[in-house]
Design goal:
This protein is α+β, with helices and mostly antiparallel strands. The chain has two domains: about 180 residues, 3-Layer(aba) Sandwich (Protein Transport Mog1p, Chain A); about 50 residues. The longest helix is centred in the N-terminal third of the chain and has 22 residues. It starts with about 30 loop residues before the first helix and ends with a helix.
């Protein structure tokens, strides 16, 4: 990413997934951070690729990895999936549209969360708003991803014929969200292959500046507020907009969105 100001909110809006202590790394330790990260990547590779092979799904994965052009990760998707990139999005983001209406998605952005407790509370608030609109069931649990503390989020919304599993974790100051979603009747059938693919994810060393992280956070506020307005939860949207304006008081899109709400 080039240095200098990036217009916040210019990224594409494309219906994202809903958005224990996490890992905290002493930045002073990263004088040799690339060497350290190679060790982390090796741990990921040893832990997750072995799982995929053990499940017998390695022949159903693509031969070559998808490499995130923003520099956050690489992953082996299932074979014959349509790849949807998001070149205007500030985040590392890709969606794989696969057979029978299934999809995989990876989103990586600068994290506003200090630990998994904060991440869990934020996700629960989002789930509460979704449930108020669509009903369904939402379950959370602590888990791990390649020995990194993580949160698992499983939601089922019959009204939308949707079942979705998310794994979220924090690493090197970034927030990773891995998603598998499908129609209700095929979720279990394709679940092993989806997880085998997601478990091949390898983070790559991407260290955001404070300014870049702020862009990611404010952009997240914009997306969240936009989704809340679509859900008809205007009061919540106004809260999120004000949170964004605290970080970027002159953000034109947030100001315009707030004005449109207040006028009503």
């Amino acid at each position: 990413m080039k240095k200098g100001k990036v217009p916040v909110g210019q990224e594409e809006s494309t219906g994202d997934c809903i958005g224990g202590n996490g890992l905290k790394f002493n930045l002073m330790f990263f004088g040799k951070r690339r060497k350290f990260f190679r060790i982390i990547s090796l741990i990921f590779t040893c832990c997750v690729l072995g799982t995929a092979v053990a499940q017998g799904n390695e022949k159903k994965l693509a031969e070559n990895p998808y490499v995130d052009p923003k520099g956050f990760f690489q992953i082996l998707p299932p074979r014959d999936c349509q790849v949807q990139d998001f070149p205007k999005d500030l985040r590392g983001k890709v969606k794989f549209k696969c057979t029978s209406g299934t999809m995989l998605q990876v989103i990586v952005q600068g994290s506003p969360f200090e630990n998994l407790d904060e991440l869990l509370e934020d996700t629960k608030r989002a789930a509460t708003r979704l449930k108020a609109k669509y009903g369904g069931s939402f379950n959370f649990s602590e888990t791990s991803f390649a020995e990194i503390p993580a949160m698992s989020f499983l939601m089922e919304i019959p009204k939308l014929n949707l079942k979705q599993e998310q794994i979220q974790f924090l690493l090197l100051g970034n927030h990773f969200t891995l998603v598998y979603g499908s129609p209700l009747n095929v979720f279990e059938k394709f679940h092993p292959l989806a997880i085998a693919s997601l478990e091949t994810l390898e983070p790559t060393p991407k260290y955001l500046s404070t300014q870049e992280t702020e862009y990611h956070i404010v952009s997240s506020k914009l997306r969240t507020a936009r989704n809340l307005i679509k859900l008809g939860q205007i009061d919540y949207a106004l809260i999120v907009i004000n949170e964004g304006l605290q970080r970027d008081p002159k953000n034109e899109r947030l100001l315009k969105m707030k004005a449109s709400i207040v006028e009503k």
